[in-house]
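In this section we walk through a basic example: taking a raw amino acid sequence and producing a predicted 3D structure, encoded as discrete structure tokens. The instruction is simple. Fold the sequence below.
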Amino acid sequence: MKRLLFLLLTGLFAQLMVSCYPEGADNIEDYDVAITNYDKSANFNELTTFSIPDSVVFFSNDKNATPPSHAFDAEILDVVTNNFIAMGYTKVADPTAETPVDQFPSFIVTVSAFSNVNYSYFVDNWYNNWDWYWGGWWNGPFNPYYPWYPVSVYSYRTGSVVVEMISTQQRKDNKANVLWTGIADGLLQGSDAFILRRIKSQLDQCFVQSPYLTKMNASE
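The resulting token sequence is shown next.
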């Protein structure tokens, strides 16, 4: 439940970011954001190894959307993998049904991508500036209001790449023990290469702002 709430709040945050720029930001990158959260009780220095699947799992709220392409899965997974290795962890093969429990990796990394179509509106209330122009004449903060202009409705697609660090130690309630979550969030606009570059930049930022993940011997 907490995991779902966190993802919903992320989507809400993305919409708030867009509403902050009703007429458009100077650059698409202005909408990009890196979000992280972690289990305050986790001792990351006790973790040593990890495994990561070879594909990204895609989710979308648009039934008419084009089927997702896995063309950039390898590049995204490389960014995530290299960041964990740089922090002192060792990548191992994915566990199988034959793998002894004592040889399981300390944690498994999952990478998911979420795509959402959002709708918003913008009203150009230029007439609310009349108080500035007629301030002396109106002698007060009264602003005339005439709904001469229609409301402009527009849509935009937001995307999030979610990285989760899941402990292989079983919890008593049998629920997934998510130790850390990193989210690269932004607008899905521009060429594939442009979007990928921004995703990689924000994924790197997720690790930069999570220094607690670094093992004490990572720099040795």
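Looking at the output, two observations stand out. Strands lie at 33-38, 49-51, 57-60, 90-91, 107-122, 152-167, 177-187. The chain is about 25% helix and 25% strand. In the next section we compare this with other chains.
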